[in-house]
Structures are given as structure tokens and as C-alpha cells.
Amino acid sequence: MALLEVSLWSVGGRKLGAVELREESTVKELKYATADLLELPPKCHRLLCGGEIMSSNKRMKHYYSQTEAAIEVTVVISHELIYKRMWDPCGEVRQAALNTLGRAAEPGSKAAIEAVCQCLEDCSGEVRRVALKTLSYIAENGNEEVINLLCDNVARGDLFTKATAIKGLMKVAGAGHQNLVCSVLDLLASRKAASRRLAMESLPQVTMPGDARSVKAACISLRDEDAKVRQLAAQALGQLALRGDPEVVEMLLERLQDQDKLTRRHATIALGHVATQDDGKACGVLTLGQPSLIGHASGLYGTGGDPVLDRFHMKLVLENYTTIENLEREEGAKSKFDIGRRRNWEQVFGQNPWMWWLPLHTQASRPIGDGVRWRVHYTRVIDEDEELPADEEGMSQASRLLNQGNAGSANRSTGR
């Protein structure tokens, strides 16, 4: 049986979607299909085709023309019932109504924006967050009234509300907007570490690289009492600070002595993005003062060709250590992935010495996707004192089957 394609359009000319129905289907079926697609109550909308209201009792083939590839239907949505449900005693109904309005309202609709703004006073935090999300959907870009409302919620909302408001500001105001940046920077003065973490995590997304206020705030946060804030501050500086900024380099060098291991790591990575090749102090500290940190920064600020670095990386390859793992290794500790110096070297450079200058994935006789892989001795990978989780039934069952197979082979070989 042939199917008819129905294209659904809003009054403002925005395509809402498409549905397929049988020729014998009625307009009532189309209305319910539209309600399911748009997640709207059937009573909230009417359907127009060719400038006339479609009768629920007529069949779809009545509106079909052989010259048209699809039936174009305009969906006229009445917001009054949605507004009424936005004040329902049940919080879940209010959230559903707000989500529906976000899909149904035309961008920039003043009536819809005013109705959603009233929901920002709701006592339920979940409803307020849905209202903020809906507001960012229906408000046009640059709407100052909406931007100010979102900024207010960044300042006074709970942590989840703050995050939702920041995300909405990114959509309505855009990265680099003065009010957005100021709202995020103000969070850094909060007594709550969670708010400061949110601010520092959001800073690289809401501001432009090289912004003096943001860079200064991140430098100050490098000395925050909370270790997570310091880590995020180092990451932010790696993305925002201009290369060669002496103040930032000095602050990052100071964090290389931080008590927190992850802070030291992120400071080293950020230093590789900010320090220049001519910065003798940064280069000297990384290559001589703390050899375990060399691998993070060497490829970033360009110290290629240095024999010290060459020897360091060759040592890591032969011992099957990554630079990240090398940060955490104890003195003299052996990698649990170590399968012998020769095989360690082959896993990085290949088996054939005359092809070491070629990328590893080009050394195969045929393309195999993500590179050449050799067999790994998994018995050396797992520590002897490391126990597999008891709930991994698949692993346990596979082990039992393997043992049974080995026992069967032994019995056959002995003739039992």
C-alpha cells in the first residue's frame, strides 16, 4: 500500500519534520502522528493545508495531488493550553510544558519569553533549570533582557542552575560577551570550591584567547587552596594565555613545585603551550631540574634535536613507559607493560630497521586500520597480586572453559 509523505511546517516557515501515512488514513490520524512527533497535546494544534483547516473526518488522499511529491501541512499551535500547564501543581507537568514550549514557540516570541521568565521564580530547582534551557531555545541571539536574567541565575542559583545558565548564555550571548565573562569571573570569588571549579572549567569556553582579565584570574587561581581549582586554572592558562607571556610562565614554573601531582602535570603541559623556545629558564627547569616532566613540554615548545631529550625518549620507549606514566612511577619501578627492550622498541618503530623512518601504519603489507600490532604477553601485563573483579562472570566462564579444554587435550594425549 502506497504511503504519503507529509511535511510539517510552522506558521513562521520553519520545518518541523515529516511523517508518512497510508492514503486511507484520516486527518485525525495525521493529527495524532503530529502530536507524537512534536510531543504536543493533540488539543494544542490545528492543521492547515492549502489555506483551509483540515477536517478530522476526511482522508489524506483528499488533500493529495499527483503533481506534488509530498503534502505540505502548516501546524498552527495554540500556546494557551501550554501556558496553563506551565502552572500545574505537578512539577513534572510543568517541566513537560516548558519542554513543549521550547519546541513549539517561534524564536523571539515575546509572549513565550514572558511566560517562561515567570517560571524562573518557581520553587523547584529542576523546573527553573528547564525554564532556563527553554529560554535559551526561544530567545533570539543578543536579547539583553534574557542575557541579564541568565546572568542573575549564574550569580544566585545552585550549582546545577549555574551550569545551565552558563550554557544558555553561550547560546544567547555567545563566547566573549562582557556580561557572560563577568558572571563567570565573579564566581571565582565564591567561598564554595565547587563554584570556583565550575567557573575555572567554564572560563576557556566563555572567553577569547588572550583576554587579559581571564588570564589574570586564572593566574590568581593557580594559588587557590583547592587542588582541583589549581588544576583547572593551569589547563585554562594553557588555552588562554599568549605564547611567551612572562608572568604566566613564572606562575606555571612556580606550580611545578605544587604538592598536588595533577597540578604539577597540568602546569607542565600548559608551560609547553605558553613558554617559547628562547625561554632559557623554562627550558632549563624542565630539562635539568625535573627530568620526569620533559616529555610533556618538549614537543610543545620545540626543543627537538636536543640530545638530552632524545636519550630520555629512547629510554621511555625501551622501558615501555609513556610520559604520563613516567610522572607517577616510583624510582626504579618497572612498567607492567614491559615485554623486553627489543619488543618494546618494535612496538613503536617496527620490526624492520630499514623501515624505522616510515610511519608505523605504512610498514604493513596491507592497510589494517589503526596500525601494526604484535602479540603482547598479557601474563606480564597483569601484576601477580592483581585480582580480577569477581563480578566479571564472562571472564571467569572463559577461564573455566579454557581449563576444561586444556584438560581434555591432556587426556587425549595420554589416552585416558
From TrEMBL:
<feature type="region of interest" description="Disordered">
    <location>
        <begin position="388"/>
        <end position="416"/>
    </location>
</feature>
<dbReference type="InterPro" id="IPR000626">
    <property type="entry name" value="Ubiquitin-like_dom"/>
</dbReference>
<dbReference type="InterPro" id="IPR004155">
    <property type="entry name" value="PBS_lyase_HEAT"/>
</dbReference>
<protein>
    <submittedName>
        <fullName>PAT14 protein</fullName>
    </submittedName>
</protein>
<dbReference type="InterPro" id="IPR016024">
    <property type="entry name" value="ARM-type_fold"/>
</dbReference>
<dbReference type="GO" id="GO:0016491">
    <property type="term" value="F:oxidoreductase activity"/>
</dbReference>
<dbReference type="InterPro" id="IPR011989">
    <property type="entry name" value="ARM-like"/>
</dbReference>
<dbReference type="Pfam" id="PF13646">
    <property type="entry name" value="HEAT_2"/>
</dbReference>
<dbReference type="InterPro" id="IPR029071">
    <property type="entry name" value="Ubiquitin-like_domsf"/>
</dbReference>
<feature type="compositionally biased region" description="Polar residues">
    <location>
        <begin position="396"/>
        <end position="416"/>
    </location>
</feature>
<feature type="domain" description="Ubiquitin-like">
    <location>
        <begin position="4"/>
        <end position="75"/>
    </location>
</feature>
